[in-house]
Amino acid sequence: MEIKSILVSEAYTNCYIVKNEKTGEGFILDPGGSALKISKIVEEMQMIPKAILLTHGHFDHIAAVDELRDRYGVKVYVSEEEFKFMQNYNNNLSVYFGEGFIVKPDIALKDGEELEIAGIKIKFILTPGHTPGSGCFYVEEEGVLFSGDTLFCMSRGRTDFPGGSEREILDSIRKKLLTLPGDTEVLPGHNEQTTIENEKRFY
Quick count: other Cβ atoms within 10 Å of Cβ 84? Predict the structure, then answer.
């Protein structure tokens, strides 16, 4: 599995482009802006996009979704708890950073649901706290967790936005993420990557 991370949006969001090196197919995770930049990386990787995965619906994780969905003809996945929540200018925070916009996802995911996209097996883990429907995507075979804005390196996502909860995010981290193998690579929505073992020191 080949993974490339690029910074998008004024919030310096990590967008991940993931390719199954055996099939040439892959997915885009949290395209928060810079659709052209993302498309160029997709072309350089010679990757055929099969889906767009969203860890949550804040503007800095979804701004390029519609352009990329139209370009590649793919479906957009997000948790069922986030599905309607993000279709509100205030909830997705876009109204506070210019003209408000919404994105309508295509497929709602349940906690613990297992997917296979582009030949890659992925488990969706619902981790509320940053938003009511925040979630992470776990690729067990590769030992990789895409943690969105739930878990950062030596930190965690903010909980002072609409629908946020400090109690819930701590529960999500302690009960659902820190129980994963310690050598799991954590690829967060912002800042540098870390490991589960490293983050256990802080919780």
Answer: 15
